[in-house]
Amino acid sequence: MIGETVTVLRRIDGPDNAHGEPTQTIDETNVDDVLVAPGPRADISDTARPAGTVVAWNLHFPKTFTGSLRGALIRVRGQAPCKVIGDPQPFTADNTPTRWWMPVEVTRADG
């Protein structure tokens, strides 16, 4: 199996702006060797969005990645970023003899 490079995007709190309002920046981190599999595709059932579709991916992150993905966005294959579902956690090392140990589901709605 050959992993791909995905980009993890996280919001980072910054200093207040000149008006005293909080600011945020986006931190982008490339993660190599992620297994990428298409997730289920589905039409959005809202009649107000007849052309709407859901794009989903099932990702498996390598053991070398140790960060949190809670609240993150992930760009797969250069497409628009997808939201991480939940707070992905890795399997135990003993139960994962391969390089990959953390399943991650991501999704976005288009249309």
Notes on the protein architecture:
The protein is built from no helices and seven strands. The chain has 111 residues and is mostly beta strands. The protein has one domain. It has a six-stranded antiparallel barrel with strand order 1-2-4-7-6-5. Strand 5 and strand 6 form a beta hairpin.
Provide key terms for this protein.
single chain, 111 residues, mainly beta, six-stranded antiparallel β-barrel
Task: Furnish the topology, listing elements before pairings.
Layout: E1 4-13, E2 24-38, E3 42-43, E4 53-62, E5 73-75, E6 82-84, E7 100-110
Antiparallel strand pairs: 1-2, 1-5, 2-4, 3-4, 4-7, 5-6, 6-7
Share of residues in helices: under 10%
| Helix and strand pattern | EEEEEEE
Give start-end ranges of low-pLDDT stretches.
none
Tally of individual helices:
0
Numbering strands along the chain, what is their spatial order in the largest sheet?
Answer: 1-2-4-7-6-5
For the biggest sheet, the summary is: 6 strands, antiparallel, barrel
**How many domain regions?**
1
C-alpha-based Rg, rounded: 16 Å
Structural class by helix and strand composition = mainly beta
What is the global morphology?
Answer: globular
Mean pLDDT: 90
Strand percentage, roughly? Answer: over 45%
* Beta strand count: 7
Q: Identify the quaternary structure here.
A: single chain
